[in-house]
Design a protein that fits this description.
By secondary structure, the chain is mainly alpha-helical. The chain contains 17 helices and no strands.
Length: 248
């Protein structure tokens, strides 16, 4: 390790020395010498024997295809152990490796945690609708509902219709993300229909009482369309504080 670290020699059988380094568990030195992707994949999966900072830099020397192959090998060998460093590499080199390919990689291992942390490292700087949508998906799958709310409220990059439909299908315990999307993009009628038909009337009350009281006329219209009881509608109107358009 000291000899190689001091760069004392430049002319030697690099492939043979690489094998000897791997046998001695000097994996960083082995990887510095290996050029064959099969050798690199065999050594790189043992991330517990490598410095994360060095490993992150080492990926910068690999081709796009080889980098993706190595990430796949690392996740295959030990998903739990290698997930964090794979997320870091994906976040650092996503422009070169391709965000779509990295999403497909984590999805192939059903690693929504990996997707959540990878996309979380780039979503605030990305203008891609797919990145924002996939981040919302991953956040829902990992139970990060507050983060779902934040993106639904702050992002201007996702497709509202697609996100609305996904949130309806996701059947989250908390309907606030769906309420936020429908309120922002004027899907109030859809929201009322969905909440009423799924016996989630308490969220209709939350919407007009706490989120946006000015939407009460549209909500009442929606409730009348689904033949909601007149008493329920009247009670809802009485509970809403604030100025509401009587004309509407």
């Amino acid at each position: 390790d000291a000899i190689l670290g001091n760069q004392m020699f430049t002319h030697y059988d690099r492939a043979h020395i690489a094998q000897l380094c791997e046998q001695a568990q000097l994996l960083q030195r082995a990887l510095e010498h290996y050029t064959d992707i099969f050798d690199i994949k065999r050594a790189i999966v043992h991330t517990h024997l490598l410095k994360p900072e060095w490993l992150g830099e080492d990926f910068g020397t690999l081709s796009v295809e080889d980098s993706l192959e190595c990430l796949k090998a690392m996740l295959t060998a030990n998903l739990r152990q290698n997930l964090q460093i794979c997320v870091q590499v994906a976040g650092k080199y996503h422009d070169q490796l391709g965000t779509t390919k990295l999403i497909e990689l984590f999805e192939s291992f059903k690693s929504f945690e990996g997707l959540f942390y990878f996309l979380g490292s780039i979503v605030n700087f990305s203008q891609e609708a797919e990145v924002h949508f996939r981040y919302i998906q991953a956040a829902c799958k990992t139970g990060q509902i507050k983060e779902v709310e934040r993106i639904c409220r702050e992002s201007s990059c996702y497709d509202p219709e697609r996100v609305k439909n996904f949130l309806k299908e996701a059947k989250l315990a908390d309907q606030l993300p769906l309420i936020i999307v429908c309120d922002r993009f004027n899907f109030v009628h859809d929201l009322v229909m969905y909440l009423y038909k799924n016996n989630l009337q308490k969220y209709i009350e939350i919407y007009v009482q706490k989120v946006n009281p000015s939407r009460l006329p549209a909500v009442v219209g929606g409730l009348l369309d689904v033949d909601c009881g007149e008493d329920v509608v009247k009670n809802l109107i009485l509970t809403v504080r604030g100025t509401v358009s009587t004309d509407q």
